[in-house]
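Worked example 2:
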Amino acid sequence: MLRLSKVGIGGHAYYLDAALGSGGPGVEPPGRWTGAGAGVLGLDGRVEPDDFVALLAGRDPGDGSALATGAGRGRVKVAGYDLTFCAPKSVSLLGALGGDEVGRAVEVAHGRAVDAGLGYLEDRAFAVRRRRDGLRLPVEVEGVASASFLHRTSRALDPHLHEHVVVANVGRGPDGRWTALDGRGLYAHAGAAASVYHAQLRHELTTVLGVTWTVPERGRAEVTGIDAGVRRVFSTRTTAIDDHVAEGGWTSARARAVAAHVTRQEKEHVPTSELRPEWERRAGEAGFGPRRLEAVLDRAVRRDRGAPAVPESEIAHGLGEWAKAHDTIARRDVVGVVAGAARAGASRHEVEEQVDRTLRAAGLADDRGRVGVAERRVPMPASLERRELHELLVRRGLDPVRSRHLGREAGIGLSLG
């Protein structure tokens, strides 16, 4: 999951309060600088509080000068964007209950997955606006400056591995000027970035710990062997939200968002070492003791070298499902389909390569050079729909030529002729 929120002026305290060496209680690790723009500003390694505060205020941490100048700078009310990459609950439990070695492996895998998701956003989503032919159009940035803060618990003090990537609302355009970001592209590409994060996470944990996965839904999967009943025991926040909306008889996404706000509690910063005995007790009562946990590991069949990370049949199926509900498609949608089709995971590089192949096969332009909301949506290509229909017919043992009516039943609505 990738949650997006805006960080207001002075919003640095929440992130620094929990971080070791950042003036807080030292419960969570220190923040780390991420994003190509951080290197441009000479920021590397551990986040120092003064540098973070300066960056969110739109100043160069090195000399204190304003990064973005101009008449509109004073009207900017958004200091940055909080991109919160959340691991699946089963991964959080694996890291919290699996012992020191497994816990470290889970955190390293999560960090690499966060970097993959952020890298995708830097290449495809982040933009600044420049005037061209009388219009202010989104153009690519040379990089954004961001600080990442790892947190391992929820507000209810359940295991909840997540990372806040706080992106400063400034970017350097191809003309060398720093200006506010065009945040629209971030929201447009958030789903694709989340899918890239989850695919990379599955890839890392399959490789290192040998875990296997449930069938991904919306790009997200759970570790097999850590079932829904166990996950629910450690989902106190979700249960509170469910109870609140059930009491009111509400069902909409908006109602859940309101319930999340109403039931929100202040975040306590408690060391995981103090929480682990209680977590282990609750897990044991749910039937998930050490033996069950050990059985989760080393179950994966290692991928043959050179074998595709994402089976083409699964991509075809995913595109067919997309075609049932959408008339148009963009590159970011294909990214989500491809990443979500990789049940055992795939690196960002593998996902991007497969996306490029799929686009070429479908006759779609890659749209390189068009970033953010400038990435075009085009009519759904018949070749993609036809491919999925063929797969569907073959799986049912039918002759595609004589079974055109099945396309209408599948909601694809095209001719194979």
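Residues 2-296 form one domain. Strands lie at 2-8, 32-34, 78-86, 127-132, 135-140, 144-153, 159-172, 178-179, 328-329, 378-379.
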